[in-house]
Fold each of these.
Amino acid sequence: MNNSPLIRLSALTKVYGSGQAAFQALKGIDLAIETGEFVAIMGPSGSGKSTTMNILGCLDTPSSGSYEFMDIQVEKLSRNQRALLRRHFLGFVFQGFNLLARTTALENVELPLIYRGEDATSRHAAARAALEQVGLKGWEHHTPAELSGGQQQRVAIARAIVTHPAVLLADEPTGNLDTKTSQEIMELITAFNREKGITVLMVTHEPDMAAYARRIIRFVDGYLESDSRTEEAA
Amino acid sequence: MLWNTLLLALRAIRRNLMRSFLTILGIVIGVAAVITMVTLGNGATKSVSDQISSMGSNLLMLIPGQRFGPGGGGAPNFKIADVEAIRYQISGAEWVAPVVNKGATAVYQANNWSTVVTGTNNDYFPAGNWELAAGRTFNETEERAGKAVCIIGETVREKLFGGQSPVGSEIRIKLFSCEVIGLLKGKGQSAMGSDQDDTVVMPLRTVQRRLSGSQDINRLTVSVSNSASIDGVKKQLTLLMRERRNISESEDDDFRVMDTRQIAETLTSTTKILTMLLGAVAAVSLLVGGIGIMNIMLVSVTERTREIGIRLAIGALEREVLLQFLIEAVVLSSIGGLIGIALATGASFFLARLMNVPYLFDPAINLLSFLFSAAIGVIFGFFPARRAAGLNPIDALRHE
């Protein structure tokens, strides 16, 4: 039990469309990720890195193969069971932030807690604490339109970590941000990985950002091309 | 779960005030239009049937008709003997009043007013539901001798006498002067729209001698006693008149017997058709409102689909998302429906007073248009959401 990894993909494939127009995005992926890892997933467009990410995040389903998450066979779960898995164990950060428009930062961060059924008092406290952790104290009542890109991404990170997820999935989290802001965001994500022990899976095509990770996986053409660890002095 | 979902739905309404407002507006206009139109139509129908009953119910009217075919031509008028014959030979006839109408100008001091003089007998008053506000009806001598006395209607009193009491005064009609012995209580407009109170009533003989100059009677009004059947009396009247007017079996009637019930039915069915027409026109505006809502919802489908993607990614169950959208749609269309009903109540109350028709609250149409608007809101608000919530979260998130 202790030996099994947090995430294990075996012979995972994904086919889009059918018949002549079918496109095989993943052609058999085997991968294991341990708790507490910081993994960067790299590769050119169409290499299958985002598809893998979406399947790992239970946002999409594989065509064949198996996906074990915390010893659960995810590919056998129903829609609702996958939603509950997302609710309790996963946090998402997207390239496009994906915050609710015209909704304050606080309410955005509260949202996952509402679905968890937490009461108003503990919800507010947790959301405020999360915003403070990402450095947005005092911005609670601003809507996304009133925040800069970097600030919006911080709100998104706060929303992802407010539930203390096991895994933070980040899909090109710095893709829409300038270099300096990108570094700040990466430092924030790294901090959550190092200090809170949250496993981070991050899709990126920027080597600078991938450099924050301890393990880099490269996809090419639907296959896993390389898997390297950057051992650094802790 | 329900409580939290309600919270989410209310938040969604609050942060999309423009969209919410437009949705509500569409419903408000539709609901208010339908309810107002139908309520006013009902009021008009009621007012018409009220006026008809003020004419007197159970009334039969005999008028000379046109005969068709060879030997046709103007049919003769009635005579005073017909009145007597009806009175004595038809048991179901309660009141029998001859009517001769002549236009004339009535003058009192410096005031003059052009009105219609009716020559008749005392049966005219109970048969036509007339009551006296002051004074008395004709006595036997006045009727037999054709004395110059008259009973005037409310409009004539107002035009000639203003604030004064008319009883006992002399008014002049054409070349003779005539004592006012009574004042009729006002009845208002007739079902045909004419002013029933614009009248001067005199004994039949007075009018025949001094105004019409002939023994003819234009019309007979017969009221049927409550115990007798209108159709029975109508049949008897027809037979009697055919006999009295020497009409052979092969010939058609040269007179017509109409009853107020028929007139009432004709008129109320007309206003009912008008109500339905108005209601149909208003229903179109409800439909247009619905299409407006549909447009708003479809325009916001991209944004909403993404929102649904975000919610699903965060861990919302499909049914939680659906419930939220359902609550949103129901809340918006209920608010719209209630505002619409309130607005319609105010508007129809006001317009009913303006148009001088009674205000009648119709629970059925209120409920019906409320339900219809709720259905529109739910269909157009909920079904696009249902499609989106059934997508893979990633497809909903990437919706363009």
Amino acid sequence: MRRLEDYGRRAVRQALRRGTLVLHLGPFAMQLKADSRALLAFLLSMYGACHATLEAGVLADFSLHVRAPNMIRRFVRRQITPDPGFYFPTVPLPRPMAPLALEMGMNLAVALQCFRFAIYHAGVVADERGAIAISAFSGGGKSTLTAALMEEGFRLLSDEFAIMGLDEPGLYPYPRPVSLKNASVEIVRAFAGAEEMSTTLTGTPKGDIGYRRARPHELEMMHEPAMPKLLLFPQFSLDAEPRAEKVEPGDAVMRFIAGSPNYHALGEAAFGSLMAFADSVAAYDLHYGNTADSIALVKDLWREHGS
Amino acid sequence: MSRSFLQIAVGLAPLPTGERLVRFIGWGRRAHILGQLATVWEERADGKLAEILANARIWAGHDRRMLSYEMNRITRALMGTDIYPVLLKGGAYVAKALTAGEGRRVSDIDILVKEDELDRVEASLKDAGWVADEGTSGDYDQQYYRAWMHELPPLRHKSRRTVVDVHHRLTPRTARLKVDHEAMFAAARPTADSALKVFNPTDRFIHAAIHICADGAFETPERSLIELFYLFADLSEAEAEGLRARAAEVGALWPVDHALWAISWFFANKRARSLCREGMFAKAFAAPVRWAIRAKVAGGLRAKAAMLLLYPRSHLLRMPIGMLTVHLFRKAVRSLSGSQAN
């Protein structure tokens, strides 16, 4: 299948306007429709290596229309909002923030409409030994740690979702850009390099937002699941002494479930895979005050558990 | 186009390919019937289509479990009373494992009790954790439901967030259509594994016809038509023959005639057509509504035009015009003032 960057800009723009652009990312095909220059530029820059089709007649798991919230806002003080095809209250954004609307919409579409997999709110990276799931509530440092581990020989599976099989605990890749907020944007830019980063969106409802691109080899391996070995709960606080504390499997699993949009809907199948997951991982709370400390902690744990 | 899609949806016509397949799946997704498409087509699908249908099947499985669990909780809440409610609509289809229930998305559970049992049912459910749903907990809505409707204001369980609609009749007190729900209640049968009852197949079809054709504005045409089609298919020859007589007996002949027409028109169903025995006058009277139903199913601008007829009709069916005026005025004032407490 061709990559998005293999098509001409004009062809991509037309397909995006018609709503026939389909991104094929890991287990999901996402149909996109939008008429926004900011969004087109973001897509070409951040999803260039992603498999894509432009012609009509390609089935997709989800569809997302990034559009004006109403007729007036198409023309006056123009705004934009993600429409995943079902009602969901979202804050309309000024048009230049279309990339944020796209990313939020793609998250929504998966979180609320995927039932073939159990979904948990977590970043996931892996190497040949297995996968590390980084669970966190927003602002805990999940994305920064995920991006940092990408520089340490791990491949990105997902920054947002641990996508777990039903009846088996393998984690499936969904390698989209890593979403970074505020101070994290500059931290990641410093070690990943400016050319790997999107333009920073300033003054969004979530503060400043920047994205770190998924790399070509991560997209190459997007159909290769990884077995989870480590489950981390990062807790960043300024000047904290670095330490890792073991979390009992029962507690870890209950905390992990709390971040799932669909666990409750899946019944026994999700319970089965989560129990297998609990058997295959060691879980830790990570306390740290800077990225270097967090990486050192994870490396130590990976020496012990990554086998 | 939607007429052919409906026939594909229930397996009467082959699955399309290419762009038409993408349109068909998009149509099914918007109509919330992918789970029902899955029960017909998943075994014969492969690739992305199989994944999409599997996803929908698993999703509908959740609704099914939720319904079964809520039936169990309702039975439990009423334990020790001598009240045996009738499960209506989706709940009954799941309890009886009917085709109409397979893959169907369900958001709430509807039960019918006798009017003199209403207070005790409400008290029992409230003891078991159900409370007035926030959306209709204001005084006006509470009073309105109790005075004029065919059901209690919706009850939402405070921890499970599931909704029960407790009906004591099948159409609002103020509705034009007077249905003999007591005769239908008397003919209801117990289910195998709970204290809840269900209507017999004929009455089940009649109730669906009332709900779809004589109450509401045909908001979910695809879902409704598929429901009618499957319920009709479940009737034995004898039951189908006796359908219109029973409908006349309980005072629901014209909704049933609409339903038979719809099944015959949208699914090219010969048996339904052979049962359509309306006179010229009734046919002429029904023509505008049937045009609107066809337009609604076709979608697009015609569907919007159809709503100009169907929406006022839905209100006029529910209440006399004077009452409607006052009600709409109250609602308008409330929405303008943005207050729920009115």
